[in-house]
Design a protein that fits this description.
Order of helices and strands: HEEEEEEEEE
Distance between the termini: 74 Å
Strand content: 25-35%
Strand order of the largest sheet: 2-1-4-7
Number of strands: 9
Largest sheet: 4 strands, mixed
Bound molecules: copper (II) ion
Radius of gyration: 30 Å
């Protein structure tokens, strides 16, 4: 009698182990599918962001830009607007052939990754050389 019970328990144990094994396999399959989906999703996000449009307003005062650091995604179409709040300043981003000599806006595509300097392009006074900033394309 006791022998049969032991056998039964052993069988139960075997079933339990194989059930667990199956479950683990399913989890792995699920994880793989999840990872793949995640990777695809990431690519999609990057592509979507890259083709995005950025509307950036830069305010100039004596003698600085606000913001002095601009971040965009590679491939973004960037519309940059210069607003002179104090003094008369320009905004030049040589790397993207942007040169606003007064209030106004222009557009460019941020197709070059990395940091690009921008600076004032109008001789505005003693602090002219301090009027620099950077645009970071990531
Ligand atoms: Cu200047």
């Amino acid at each position: 009698m006791k022998k049969w019970m032991t056998l039964g328990l052993t069988l139960l144990l075997v079933f339990a182990i194989s059930a667990c094994g199956t479950k683990t396999d399913n989890n792995n399959a699920g994880n793989n599918a999840g990872n793949n989906a995640g990777t695809t999703g990431d690519t999609g996000t990057a592509g979507g962001a890259g083709g995005g449009a950025q509307d950036i307003k830069v305010t100039a005062t004596n003698f600085q830009f606000e913001p002095a650091e601009i971040r965009v995604k590679k491939g973004d179409k960037v519309k940059i607007t210069l607003v002179n709040k104090e003094g008369a300043h320009g905004l030049e981003i040589s790397d993207f052939n942007v040169n606003l000599q007064k209030d106004g806006s222009t557009e460019f595509t941020a197709d070059k990754p990395g940091e690009h300097e921008f600076h004032c392009s109008v001789m505005c006074g003693a602090g002219h050389d301090n009027m620099v900033g950077k645009i970071i394309v990531e």
